Amino acid sequence: MAKHAVIVDAVRTPGGKRGGGLGGWHAADLAAEVLTALQRRNDLDPALVDDVIMGCVSQVGDQSVNVARNAVLAAGWPETVPATTVDRQCGSSQQAAHFAAQGVLAGAYDVVVAAGVEVMTRTPMGASSAGGRPFGPRAEARYADRETFGQRGLVPQGLGAELIAERWGLSRTDLDAYAARSQARAATARDEGRFDREIVPVERRTWDAETREATAHGTDVTADEGIRESTVESLANLKPAFLPDGRITAANSSQITDGASAVLIMSEEKATALGLTPRARFHAFALAGDDPVAMLTAPIPATRRILDRSGLTMADLDLVEINEAFAPVVLAWQRELGADPDRVNVNGGAIALGHPLGASGTKLMATLLCELERTGGRYGLQTMCEGGGLANATIIERL
């Protein structure tokens, strides 16, 4: 009998806007909230957990010194539970899920948690590379002759998004229309309670950047804070973010967000022995690298690779969650893969719900799982662009 890696449960915090209701949380403590939720919801003895693999991008300050291990200790789990923190940029916790499931398939794990955390209010994006030269002189030299909108070499991801919009002929109106749709879909999903099963309410804690002190308010954050009413007409009034005459704005980009998420993964045999019901199984995995200047196009080859490996077609996929780092990432991917927009990010995406970097991978997995269950779909694809021109792709099958 073939061995299967199964998902028993998946949870996430609400997405807290920058400076919002989750900004006062220490990353280890916020990650402990989702670990504790998995424990309570599944009556799980945490001593059974073979490993906790946690994605985090800015591993500095509050998020340094192996935040996964610190979250395990903060959750009150036994000291015997090991943990490690991984960085594949925006796909860090999706990679954590890959490592966790692959460990189960290899027989190295019976019970493992894949998770992610990022508190971007307290540890801003780019904090871990501040003052450094992360690409190094050889990589810089390799791309020194490339010019992108007047800048040479490796450029910020915002210019990569502008480059994608230009290459695929996506207008500002195209991007704003997509952003408005993401907001509308997210609002509908919230109002219909589609996120209720995946969201773990957490205490509202705000952050004073000047005093660097947190304040607990005695109430809970229960819903994503980034959802707002948008129209193409209202979004057209926003100034471009990266180029004076550019197409990328704050509204058609992902939101800077605080959050944590976690997925409980087991061998099918172990789940049965514990009396737990698997909700999905991991069907296929793929990775891809692509041009690091455009940076955000790798979901296209990653998706092609996972379809080849799985023997599935786009028509076989009931739902897709592709991270909305920027609107052109999704629109270019849809065009190349011939994806049905009515199956893609049906509950909105990071433009509305936020992108808590290291937490986004397992966050999207929780949403994909719950939506497959709500709609009765069988196969779901998750993919996301990552810094350096990388992408993960995962296919899960609802059970």
From TrEMBL:
Claim: Acyltransferase is one of the keywords in the record: yes
Keyword set includes rRNA-binding: no
Gene3D superfamilies: 3.40.47.10
Residues covered by the Thiolase C-terminal domain: 277-398
GO molecular function: acetyl-CoA C-acyltransferase activity
Enzyme class: transferase
Assigned keywords, A-Z: Acyltransferase, Transferase
UniProt xrefs under SUPFAM superfamilies: Thiolase-like
PANTHER family: ACETYL-COA C-ACYLTRANSFERASE (PTHR43365:SF1), BLR7806 PROTEIN (PTHR43365)
Protein name: Acetyl-CoA C-acyltransferase
